Amino acid sequence: MFRAIFYLLLTVVVITVLKSIIGIVLRGVSEAMKPGSSAPGAPPRSSNQVPLTGELKKDPVCGTYIAAATSIKEKVGGQTFHFCSQECRDKYVASLAR
Question: Containing H/E element for 74?
Answer without folding.
Answer: strand 72-76
